[in-house]
Amino acid sequence: MATPASYDLSFVDGATDPARASATRASRRTGHPVLKRPATVMTTAALGDVVKKTCAGCHSDQRKQGNLSLQQFDLTTIGQASPEVAEKMINKLRTGMMPPPGRARPGGDTLQVLLETLERTMDARYAADPNPGTRTFQRLNRAEYERAIRDVLSLDVKADSWLPLDTKSANFDNIADVQTPSATLLDSYLDAASEISRLAVGDPKAGVSTSTYKIARLASQLDQVDGAPVGTRGGTAVTHTFPADGEYVFTITLHAIPTGQLFASTAPFDEKIEVSVNGERVAVLDIDRGMSQADPQGMEMKTKPIPIRAGPQRIAATFVRTFEGPVNDNITPLGHSIADTQIGAQAGITVQAHIQNFAVTGPFNPTGVSDTPSRRRIFSCRPLAAAEARPCAEKILSRLGTQAYRRPLQPNDMKGLLTFYDEGAKSGGFELGIRTALEAMLSSPHFIFRIEELPAATKGRVAVNGVDLASRLSFFLWGAPPDSQLVALGRSGRLADTTVLLSQAKRLLADPRSEAQIHRANATCKSCHQFIDPIGLALDNFDVMGRWRIRENGAPLDTRGDYYDGTRITSPAELQAAMLKRPVPLMRSFTQNLMAYALGRRVEWYDAPTVRRIELAARANNYRLNDFIFGVVRSDAFRMRKVVAENPTKAAPVSSPASTEPKAPASSRGR
């Protein structure tokens, strides 16, 4: 077999000798070109003439297609005068989208020379004036909020119980500039803090309340659900946190047909519902096939009061599996079952009863609060005398506050938390004081927002401080706050060392926590769909189960489409070949998305040189995922920030979007 030619990377700005050698070795090993130097040599004036001749017909001052004019294009000044235009041109040329398929193109390597000249121009501009970018303070999204609560309080919660859906930008829900706070959102955080602190500490005087768990109509009633006892099927199983020891009533609501009768009332066998707590059966309810929505109790079935201890317990409401074998049921190919909401039977709809809601009401007759994982995490000390209460509270709040705020507490932080502790302890004793302070802690902007310390410098490029860098790394790779080891390295300043930083990145990646979705006739829609539809069409031979097919509803499938560079594709193999023909745009797009998630901001034109360097280094090592991750972690965009506003005061311990003092929690406002 002939040895593939090697490729010269010496003209690539920022490519070190080891990178060139590694890239050449990868090229020889795989047979795929890494980067080929064009044979054509052209002056900047000649390249400018090419742009005006080839592109200015559509991108003129008059036509201005794509809201872009290249009529005055000047390659010698575009890097300074129009850097965003230059990066757009690089992207279009690299992917082969411009000139459009079917239009005249310059001969030879002319477009490749233009592309690489633009890239070198922009990389040189960045090297002369690096811009790591900046962002506003970043709010925890719902997933990060849940993980933060779990890390600080050893309590699993569902943030969607209180918080609205996160706004997305650049494909992610952690982009800072669209996380706009509002009065409604902040009120939701206050409600969440009130309820979470109550569940974490426990509430011996808890009032009766109801929590309802809804079950999707598509949920299978045929198989055992995760966490349910053996010998059951369907229903649901959830982890519910009980606020106090006491008695609780479970309510099961069944689906009804539109005329009000029980769904599956004509089934040829009786059914039973089993209610269990931590796998132990606590109640069995017989389903009355004659029940109706017209009855006083409607479609509800209730248990007698059942004594349950405080804390997280696994509860389940399921059907008793009475036998194995075929049933009078038409099962869909996906194994789903759907409660029929229409009058009459439908193909693929089961005839078995379906649970609609599962509710927990209580506590009745509360007797206290048992030991729970969250109480063990919170109460690291217990006062044996009145004089020991406040020092013990200070110890607890200092430890939890450091975790919650993801940095060492400042004197004002502790002063504010102890103020709320005193208020709660005055009216309800030590535990209520801790609970009130926790509520204030979880309501604080220092917990809700990822606020980075502003440096003393008034402008220019500055390094992110060690504690904030620890937080950036942890939220990037874990989606959760940093652990004590990472915070300690940040406080000591050692995390700024590249070797230490990459070592910690490897540690976080090895941790299980790093593992923890006629239209085209519209011109507005076609602008996107002409690029994305061919990809879907090429994969249309796979059905929803992944099986190969050539027909749909009896009609032959038409999987023909044109890739964005004009290549005709009709199958997954041809799609793969078309994508691999131009791997660089694909890998750069991946790098951009990875950076956007890591930085919590959109990737802008001034990040393009960084994207190119990361992709080039990963390309030299056969595109390993870790190379992309480590490339982002060691980049200036991740480790530094640009100061864009005057900061006349000396470096503040914390910059907050709101008052540094936590607002009065809900429990202290009489809510």
Residue share in β-strands:
5-15%
Helix content range: 25-40%
CATH architecture of the domain at 209-368: Sandwich
What kind of sheet is the major sheet?
A: 5 strands, antiparallel
Number of helices: 21
- CATH topology (level 3) name of the domain at 209-368: Jelly Rolls
Mean pLDDT: 81
Rg from alpha-carbon coordinates? 31 Å
The quaternary structure here is single chain
Name the CATH superfamily assignment of the domain at 209-368.
Answer: Galactose-binding domain-like
The secondary-structure class comes to alpha+beta
Question: What is the straight-line distance between the termini?
Answer: 79 Å
Shape: flat
Under CATH at level 1, the class of the domain at 209-368 stands as Mainly Beta
Number of strands: 17
What are the segments in which pLDDT stays under 50 over at least 5 consecutive residues?
1-20, 26-39, 326-336, 341-348, 517-527, 647-664, 667-671
Short description:
The protein is α+β, with helices and mostly antiparallel strands.
